[in-house]
DNA sequence: AATAAATAAATCACTCTTATTTATTATTGA
DNA sequence: TCAATAATAAATAAGAGTGATTTATTTATT
C-alpha cells in the first residue's frame, strides 16, 4: 500500500500572504475554543494578541458560516455582559475508519467530536477489497442519517490502519499471499474515487495519538510521547501541540525502539509490549486468545500470564520512554490501548515505577500518564485527521495555498 | 546557571498580522539565498510562490538596507539578463563564544558566515568570572576591527556551553565547589549588561548542530539527527529545517540515550562515546591525556586505545541512532566532533556498519554521514544563534511581535 | 518576433487604531 | 433606600495603513 499517499505535498518553503494569514487566525480562534471551551470574543482577543476588532470580524464570519454559535450572556461582572461563543455542533462532520486485527469500525462525528453514528464489522483478517467495500457501504449508511444540508458539511474521511500490513502474515498465521495484496493496493485512492471529500490515511497508533491531542480531556501539553498498545504497539510524537509524522509519515514508530541487543539482533519494544505477544503466551498454554479481540471489558486472561506480560511490557516501555525523552525532551509520556482500564492503570503504574528506578543522568524523566480516550482512540483519531487538517492551527496554514 | 534563560518567551499561541507576514517573507528570501547561493528575483518568486512584484519589492528593500547585493548579470539565455542577488557580506555581524573543557574561543563572523576575527584563551577549567571577563575583553578587541558603520550592524552574541557544568567536577578531578559557582550564576545576564545586542545561550552540542544547519555544505535535509563528540557527547535534532530544542531547551540530549541496562543502572551513550572516556583510558595506561585538547590534527593517541574507543563508541552510536530514528524518522544521522578527520571518518564508517548489521524491523535506518564543519562547529554554531533568530525562516516569525 | 526579467500603478484583502455604542455594576448623595 | 452618576468592559463601526496581487509596461536579450 502506498503509505506515502497521505503525506502532504512535499513542496519547498512557501511564502505567506493575506489569505494565509486570515486562514491561520480563523483556525487559531477555533483551536482556542476547542481547547478551552466557550469563550467571549474579548477573551479570544486577549489570548491571541489580536485586536478586539479583528477578532470580532473573524468570529462574526465564523458564526455566519455556521461554525460558531452564541451562548447565554454572562452577567454579574462590571461592564457589558460577555457572550461566550462555542463551536456549533453542526459546523462540520467527519468520518473515521479504523482497520483492526479482527474488525473494521466506521464512525461519524460532529464538529464537537461527538460520535453520532457507528458501523462495525468483524472479519477474520483485513483485506483491501473488504475494507474498500465496507468503507463505501458504511459511509452510505451514515450519510443517510444526515440532512441534505448537513451532508454538504462533511469535511473528510480519516483512515487509521497499521502500516506494513504484509509483515503481519507470520504473526497472524496466514499465508504470505493474503497480506501481499496490501503491498500494491492504494485503498485511499480507490475510496477517493467514490467521494468528493478529502481522505487521509495514517498509521493507527499515530491516529490514536491525534485523538488524544484533539479530543483529550484536560489541558493538552505542548510536547508529549504517546504509546498505543494494540495488536502491535506504536505511537505518536507531539511537538508544539501538533502531531509530528516526519518526512515519510512514519515518525513515532515507537514499536521499533530497540530495548536491548542480543548478538546482532535488537530486541524491540514491539516484541514485549504488544497484544500479539500476549496472544502468543495465551495460545502457548492452550488458552483461547480470541478473548483479546472482544471489547476489553470482558477479557478473562489467566492472571499469571497477564502479570508476566505487564511486567515485561512495562520494562520495555520504561526503557523506550527514557530513550525517546533524550531525543525530544517531552513533558510527559502517555499510554493507552485496546486494554481493560485496570490493566492500563497497572501498566502505567509499573512503567512509571521502572522509569523512576532507572538511573539516567542528564534528562528529566517524564511522568507517565494514562490515555484519556481509551479503546476507541484509533477511530476517533482517524476522524480527527480531516478535522485537524481543515480547522486547527497548523504552521502550514499561514503559507500560500 | 539559569539555562532556561535562553528559551524564547513561552507565550501561548499568538495571532498573525501583516508585519509578521512581511517579516516572514523577508526571512524566506534570505534563507533561500543562503541555501542556494545567489538567485535572481524571478527565481525566488518561482520557488517561494510569491508574485514577482512582491519579491521585487522585498528584495529591493533588502538591497537598500544592505543585506543583499547585485551580482553580474547573466546573459546567454532568451530574455532580459537575470541579475543574481547575493547576501552582502557586511549585512550583519555576529559573535560566537565557545566555552570548552580547556579553552575559550570567541569568533566574529560576517553575514556570509566567514570568520573575520578570532580570540582564543586556554584555561585549566572554566569559571563564570573567567568567562565573563574573556567575553567582554574579546568582544571589545574584535569590535575594534570593525568600522563605526559596521559596529552598528552587530546583531548579537551566541554562547555555546555544556549544560550542567556542575556535574563535571568529578570527571574533571576538580573540587565540587569550583563548579558549583555555575549553578547560581547567569552569565548571559551578566554579559548582557555590557552590550546592547541580544545574547543567546545554548548547549554546545546543539549549537554545533545549528552550525551544520546554517553553514553546512551541500543540501541540508529537512530532518536529521546530529552528534557532536566533545569532552561529552551531545547532539541536536533538526525538524523541518530548524533546530528543535524543546520546551526546556534540552531536546537532543543525545548523550543520555540509554544503550543498555545493567541491573537498574542504564548505560548511556555518553559513557562510551565521549572524549572523557578516551581520556580516562589514556590516563589508565600512564599516557598524557592533554594531547586530546590540542587541535586534533596533532593528536598522538596510542593506536590500540583509540581502536578500542572507536569500537565502543560506534556501537553505542549505532544503537542510539536506531532508537532516535524510531522516534523521529530522520533522513540521516551526522557525526562530528573535536576529532582528527581520519578518526571521524573511521567512527562514521564503523557506526554505519554496525547500524546496518543491527536487525530492526519497522524503520528505515538512516545513512550516517560525517559533519561538514568539523572542530569549529561549536563556535560557529554559537554565532549562528543570533543569525537564525533574526534572519532565517522560523515559524514564529509569522506571528505578532 | 518571441521570451523572460524587472517594475510601476492600481486594486484588493486584511489587521490596526480610534471613536462610539451598549449593557452592566459600583458609588454617591439626598 | 433609591435614583442619579461614574466606571468598566464588551462589542462594533469607520477609516487608516500595510502588504500581496493583478494587470500592464518597459527593457534586454536570443
UniProtKB/TrEMBL annotation, chains A, B:
InterPro entries: ATPase_NBD (IPR043129), ROK (IPR000600), WH-like_DNA-bd_sf (IPR036388), WH_DNA-bd_sf (IPR036390). GO terms for biological process: N-acetylneuraminate catabolic process. GO terms for molecular function: N-acylmannosamine kinase activity. Pfam families: HTH_24 (PF13412), ROK (PF00480). This is N-acetylglucosamine repressor. It comes from Actibacterium lipolyticum.
Amino acid at each position: 500500500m502506498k503509505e506515502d499517499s497521505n503525506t502532504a505535498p512535499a513542496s519547498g518553503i512557501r511564502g505567506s500572504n493575506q489569505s494565509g494569514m486570515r486562514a491561520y487566525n480563523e483556525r487559531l480562534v477555533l483551536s482556542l475554543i476547542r481547547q478551552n471551551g466557550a469563550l467571549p470574543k474579548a477573551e479570544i482577543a486577549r489570548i491571541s494578541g489580536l485586536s478586539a476588532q479583528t477578532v470580532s470580524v473573524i468570529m462574526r464570519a465564523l458564526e455566519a458560516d455556521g461554525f460558531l454559535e452564541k451562548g447565554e450572556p454572562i452577567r454579574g461582572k462590571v461592564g457589558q455582559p460577555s457572550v461566550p461563543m462555542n463551536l456549533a455542533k453542526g459546523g462540520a462532520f467527519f468520518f473515521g475508519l479504523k482497520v483492526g486485527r479482527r474488525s473494521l469500525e466506521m464512525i461519524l462525528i460532529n464538529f464537537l467530536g461527538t460520535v453520532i453514528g457507528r458501523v462495525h464489522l468483524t472479519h477474520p483478517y483485513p483485506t483491501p477489497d473488504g475494507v474498500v467495500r465496507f468503507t463505501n457501504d458504511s459511509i452510505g449508511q451514515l450519510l443517510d442519517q444526515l440532512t441534505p444540508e448537513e451532508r454538504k458539511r462533511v469535511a473528510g474521511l480519516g483512515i487509521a490502519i497499521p502500516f506494513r500490513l504484509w509483515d503481519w502474515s507470520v504473526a497472524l498465521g496466514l499465508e504470505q499471499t493474503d497480506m501481499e495484496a496490501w503491498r500494491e493496493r492504494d485503498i485511499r485512492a480507490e475510496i477517493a474515487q467514490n467521494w468528493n471529500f478529502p481522505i487521509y490515511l495514517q498509521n493507527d497508533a499515530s491516529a490514536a495519538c491525534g485523538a488524544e491531542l484533539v479530543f483529550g480531556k484536560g489541558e493538552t501539553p505542548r510536547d508529549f510521547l504517546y504509546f498505543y498498545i494494540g495488536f502491535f504497539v506504536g505511537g505518536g510524537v507531539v511537538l508544539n501541540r501538533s502531531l509530528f509524522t516526519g518526512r515519510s509519515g512514519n515518525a513515532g514508530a515507537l514499536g521499533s525502539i530497540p530495548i536491548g541487543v542480543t548478538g546482532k539482533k535488537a530486541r524491540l519494544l514491539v516484541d514485549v509490549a504488544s497484544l500479539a505477544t500476549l496472544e502468543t503466551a495465551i495460545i502457548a498454554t492452550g488458552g483461547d486468545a480470541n478473548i483479546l479481540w472482544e471489547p476489553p471489558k470482558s477479557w478473562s486472561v489467566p492472571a499469571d500470564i497477564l502479570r508476566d506480560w505487564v511486567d515485561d511490557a512495562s520494562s520495555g516501555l520504561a526503557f523506550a520512554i527514557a530513550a525517546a525523552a533524550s531525543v525530544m525532551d517531552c513533558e510527559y509520556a502517555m499510554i493507552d490501548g485496546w486494554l481493560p482500564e485496570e490493566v492500563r492503570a497497572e501498566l502505567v503504574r509499573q512503567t512509571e515505577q521502572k522509569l523512576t528506578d532507572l538511573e539516567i543522568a542528564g534528562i528529566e524523566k517524564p511522568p507517565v500518564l494514562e490515555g484519556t480516550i481509551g479503546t476507541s482512540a484509533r477511530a476517533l483519531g482517524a476522524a480527527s485527521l480531516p478535522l485537524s487538517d481543515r480547522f486547527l492551527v497548523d504552521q502550514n496554514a499561514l503559507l500560500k495555498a
